Amino acid sequence: MGRYILRRLISAIPVLLGITVIVFLIMAMIPGDPATAILGSYATPENVARINHDLGLDHPLVQRYFIWLFNMLHGDFGRSYSLNRPVIDEVLDRFSATLILAGVSFVACSILGILAGVVSAARQYGAADKAITFVVLIGISIPSFFLGMMMILLFAVRLSWLPVSGMYEIYGGGGPIDLLRHLTMPAVALSVVATGVIARLTRGAMLEVLRQDFIRTARAKGVHERRVIWGHALRAAMVSVIPVLGLQAGYVLSGAVYIETVFQWPGIGRMLVDAILKRDILLVQGGVVFVAACYVLFNILVDVAQSLLDPRIKT
Amino acid sequence: MSATSFTRRQFGLISGALLTTTALASMPALGATPPGVLVVGQIAEPKSLDPAADTAANDFRILVNLYDGLLRYKHGTLEVEPALAESWDISADGKEYTFHLRKGVKFHDGTDFDAAAVKFNFDRMLDDKSPYHDTGPFPLSFFFSSIVKTEAPDAHTVKFTLKEPYAPFMSNLASPTGMIVSPTAIKKYKKDIGRNPVGTGAYKFKEWKSNERVTVEAFDGYWDGKPGLKAVLFRPITDANTRVAEMLSGGIDIMVEVPPNSLSQFKPPKFNIVEASGPHLWFLILNCKDGPFKDKRVRQAANYAINKEAICKDVLEGTAVVAAGPTPPAFNWAYNHDLKPYPYDPEKAKALLKEAGAEGAELTFYVTQGGSGMLDPVPMGTAIQADLEAVGLKVKIETFEWNTFLGKVNPGLDNKGTHVDMAEMAWMTNDPDTLPFLALRTGAWPDKGGFNSGYYSNPEVDKLLAEARTSTDQAKRAELYKKMQVIVHDDAPWVFVANWKQNAVADDLVHNFSLEPSFLLELQKVTKT
């Protein structure tokens, strides 16, 4: 097992290097540069040259890439010009907020999705199955940012049950209850689509498994139906559900970009959007590399979990 | 599975959901900030709270409450009045400015404000040999690039020597870029001064939580009277819809830059809408060098053909007024009140086009998706396209994101082999000199480092602007600018479209709140019950 994990970790290195090259090139190629973004209408060639020099952007491209990579390997992600602070401080601050939002959403959509899928499969074509399939279809079809805005209008503006946006009450806020109140709407908005996808796939996987011989044998032996479903069938179905969970984790992380903007959640998705608009090169690069590294790591965890469930995969 | 167990589980689920909802909803009323604590909804996170490093109106709104400059704008105008300097003398040749500083003023860190502090600030920005020059970059330092040296002959006197007479110097000193930071704080925090600001202003910095809030508190030792609020919280909310929802639900007390189509949701007595005209101009740059707009009659025709009233009223919902010329009326002393906007007259436009033989000409039109001061550029661009098509011009729109747009327009409309006939643009400035000097002079063509992207050139305008810039007599300057406006109005190098009225909404707890033409959000006298 240890060797398998090590092999997967080593294979992640070229992936991450590739990501650094791609994000660096994209930021170098998009039109508009930091100096123009800083100066706006005052961007004379002379002013632009002065700012570029101050920001160290007057070196050749290749040299800039290696300076960045070298510094990053030494733990220095550089300084964000648009926020005037070290990139790594900002990324870590913001990532913890995203982790709370995406983490809660991911756990919620995994549990609810699997639950709904299993119930649906166990009562195929029954009333519960039809109801769940219908709700899931609606959930998958509504864009999450739209759902978010509608929830704000209803629960925050009309009914005043929940706060519109932010992570904590701006004055005298803090504590887990305050966080929960602010977290509810964005977490729901973010997890709806993923819940639907997971529910559908779990249902399909369960139906597949329930048709197999070992289930019939279990039932024939007189095993309680609840145990057949949750014990035997779900365990076998999880092998095909887990990779989907890994994919949905990516979806939840990227979906956080819209949701964080709608709900003003101080997370990394919103940070990246702002940074791109301001052409804050180092912040974009640092943020993307950090998120990519987390995603790669998470997928290694998923693979390991899958190989624990089904040892045949570890080859 | 028995019927009872199912019901029990169901019961558990339902009661759990009910309990959670009740717990969440029974919390104290939302946005209940105490009296004296004001929450301002900003459009973005500030870049920095170092006045020498900032460029955006969004950041200036906080700065003006933390810092003072030697001068400031008189309430409701763009004319300067004493602030940290009590009086001043200008030498006859207009090259030496001597300021006599206010005594007994202290920075928030308890250190004294004096002439050495002023010299320290200007040296930091302008002198690359200053040990603290590396705490930048200072993008707007060119506001003061005419300064050759700054001297402090005694503790309360500062003398600036300029390369050449430069009339906008005074309004630049009143702009946020001229605000004075505590030298002790700069030495202590170095590059991090932008996140640990120390000034002499009405409010002192307390805390900056990334993307949540910037908190400032009343500074009891303020030289200009006790501030009206105990604390102000500036909250960045980038999404306009969310900002509106926060305002409606009471999460913020003041909201700036209300989207025009949301204004109708805010009604008295609960909400008050505040407006002020500002030094803003929204215009179309026309390519005077090449293409149909080379002919003055075609440029005038464009001015007649575009229905500016309809744009201001329908697209911008009354948040802007029709512009008459290159100088916004907010510069009251320099504005030519006799100038009238080109009336909407499609027939006259058609006649002029016929005369110039430009009927059916094809035009390329650069439109941006958004940007500082650009208002609602896509619908405005589409309305303009329709108006021009109505007089027989074929207009092809190309749309770009703001930074890309600037990268294409600033180098000139005939650049690298592409020909563009017209482009949207907007400016907000603090002196009537800035915009025409940077964007209408022959010496400001893009290849000479200016913003005259449409290659307009009129020697008489050049002469008037040069003269106005070096005259220290305001009445004389005013006269020169007024003449310039008449000529530019007739030459029509631009289509003069709109002057934006900035707006804000305040709830009924906020008192004494108004907006300034300078776009600065002064909160010294505001109170909240």
Largest sheet of chain B: 12 strands, mixed
What is the number of beta strands of chain B?
22
β content of chain B, as a range? 15-25%
- Largest interface, C-beta closer than 8 angstroms, per-chain residues: A-B, 63 and 65 residues
> What is the succession of H and E elements of chain A?
HHHHEEHHHHHHHH
Structural class of chain B: alpha+beta
Helix content of chain B: 25-40%
- Strand order of the main beta sheet of chain A, please? 1-2
The count of DSSP E runs of length 2 or more, i.e. the number of strands of chain A, is: 2
Query: CATH homologous superfamily of the largest domain in chain B?
Result: Dipeptide-binding Protein, Domain 3
Quote the CATH topology of the largest domain in chain A: MetI-like fold
Anisotropy-based shape of chain B: globular
Broad structural category of chain A:
mainly alpha
What's the number of helices of chain B?
A: 14
Which key features would you list for this structure?
heterodimer; A: 315 residues; mainly alpha; MetI-like fold; 12 helices; B: alpha+beta; D-Maltodextrin-Binding Protein, domain 2; Dipeptide-binding Protein, domain 1; Dipeptide-binding Protein, domain 3; twelve-stranded mixed β-sheet; four-stranded antiparallel β-sheet; 22 strands; 29% helix
What does this structure look like?
Helices cover 77% and strands 1% of the residues of chain A. Chain A is mostly helical and 315 residues long. The model of chain A has no long low-confidence stretch (mean pLDDT 87). In chain A, 40% of the residues are buried. Chain A starts with a helix and ends in a 6-residue tail after the last helix. Chain A has a two-stranded antiparallel ribbon. Chain A has twelve helices and two strands, in the order ααααββαααααααα. With 529 residues, chain B is an alpha+beta fold. Chain B has three domains: 1-67 and 201-276 and 501-529, 3-Layer(aba) Sandwich (D-Maltodextrin-Binding Protein, domain 2), CATH 3.40.190; 68-189, Dipeptide-binding Protein, domain 1 (Alpha-Beta Complex), CATH 3.90.76; 280-500, Roll (Dipeptide-binding Protein, domain 3), CATH 3.10.105.10. Chain B has 14 helices and 22 strands. Chain B has helices at residues 3-25, 57-66, 115-126, 169-174, 183-189, 240-249, 296-305, 308-315, 346-356, 377-390, 402-409, 434-439, 459-470, 474-491; strands at residues 37-42, 71-73, 80-82, 85-90, 96-101, 147-154, 157-162, 203-209, 213-218, 231-236, 254-256, 271-277, 280-286, 320-322, 362-368, 394-400, 414-415, 418-419, 422-428, 494-507, 510-511, 527-528. In chain B, the strands form five sheets. In chain B, strands 1, 8, 9, 10, 11, 12, 13, 14, 15, 16, 19 and 20 form a twelve-stranded mixed sheet that branches. Chain B has a four-stranded antiparallel sheet with strand order 4-5-7-6, with helices on one face. Chain B has a two-stranded antiparallel ribbon with strand order 2-3. The longest helix of chain B is centred in the N-terminal third of the chain and has 23 residues, at 3-25. The model of chain B is unreliable at 1-6 (pLDDT under 50). At the A-B interface, α2, α3, α5, α7 and α8 of A face α1, β10, α6, α11 and β19 of B.
